[in-house]
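<derive_structure_tokens>
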Amino acid sequence: MLPNGLRSTDLSPDNLGAFPAHVGRASNVFHSLQPDLILMGAENHFYAPVTVGARVLFDEPILALRLPTGGRAAIRHEAYGRLEESDEHWNLGLVADSACTIEHHPGDAYRGLVAVLTVGRLESLLDRQRCPAAVSRFLAGHADGVGFAARTNARLRRIAGEIGQTPYQGAMASLYAEGKLYELLAETFTILGAQDEPQGRVSGRDRKAAMAAYDLIRENLAAPLPVEDVARRVGLSQRRLSELFRELFGASPFQCLTRWRLEAARDLLDQGELSVKQVAYSMGYAHVSSFSQAFVRQFGFPPRSRRRRTDFGL
């Protein structure tokens, strides 16, 4: 709805995304990856304040993940209030009723990804695995809706970029996007899970420092920083950083670094554009043999079996 009262219902039914030229433009492309899973790419540029009403027509509660890659906006829902979003902050909502409004700021060129899946699909994906406490409460029926907002890290940006630049077409493109969306969801749950109050009652200051260390390690996978340097940069002792990582992420900083580097290497191999040797070097391994051994320990199979056979288009 515009300040002058114009609503989408006043527009031509042949093009509900059309706005008067002086107001701006909106381009929203929908992809139905599964009957209960939708991906949308949004590109909006408004010259006046615009509030858009939205509702997803699923017959059950939903999870909606919004990851802007440019510009800023705010989403409002009666279950959790108002959440700001920008290229620095993403948000996630779990709601029984999907009706919400999105407020767009004048002058901003907004771009972003929106993923929506039903709670039924989410529960089948989780399969009784541990998830953030607030999510668990919602799934158990103890809340009408929950909303989260957090800072966008390098890994989320990378996954979003890979979704937007799929190397495939047709059915393979949909499968690729679906897999990347699950990876995106797993990363957001990792971030939200670290915000839960664990048994050791990590203080807010320590949790913030640990998440800063998490970002530093993630952003420097190819040229890892020494753990002592990471600890110094976030204002913690090396021992305390290790304690926090074990409590929040289940492993030491070095173990997390190794796992995350190998996961990033696996993603590069999946793209099929680099050789095993190139992937190993891009992840900071000086010797392919060391990389291959670490890869087998992590995943149970050698990296060469993971790389796509691009000569057959697979």
Notes: The longest helix spans residues 170-195. Residues 170 and 176 are 10 Å apart (CA to CA). Strands lie at 24-34, 37-46, 50-54, 62-70, 72-77, 81-86, 89-95, 100-104, 109-118, 145-151. The longest strand covers residues 24-34.
